[in-house]
Amino acid sequence: MTRINFNGVDRDMTADEETAHAIIIADNTARRAADDKAQAAQAAAKKSAEKKLAALGLTADEIAAL
């Protein structure tokens, strides 16, 4: 069993608490992975847009101003 400190008292988690804890950990892991994927997609889109603007003849300073 997993130990927990509840209001200053160390004790073992109940089976229900362990199940809830495992669900929360899995959910947080999935959310973190989704956030990382979204940030990577946004960074790729920004880089693509900057490349297209540069191809149109804008300077790096003009692109940064946008």
What would you say this structure looks like, in words?
It is built from two helices and two strands; from the N terminus they run ββαα. The protein is rod-shaped. Helices cover 71% and strands 12% of the residues. It has one domain. A hairpin with a 2-residue loop joins strand 1 (3-6) and strand 2 (9-12). With 66 residues, it is α+β, with helices and mostly antiparallel strands. The longest helix has 41 residues, at 15-55. A two-stranded antiparallel sheet has the order 1-2.
Shape call: rod-shaped
Overall number of structural domains? 1
The proportion of strand residues reads: 5-15%
Strand order of the largest sheet: 1-2
> What's the number of extended β-strand segments?
2
SSE order, one letter for each helix or strand = EEHH
What integer value in Å does the Rg equal?
23 Å
Uncertain ranges = none
Indicate the structural class: alpha+beta
Mean pLDDT: 95
Q: Number of helix segments? A: 2
Largest sheet: 2 strands, antiparallel
Distance N to C terminus: 55 Å
Q: How would you concisely characterize the structure shown here?
A:
By secondary structure, this protein is α+β, with helices and mostly antiparallel strands. The protein has helices at residues 15-55, 60-65, and strands at 3-6, 9-12. Strands 1-2 form a two-stranded antiparallel ribbon.
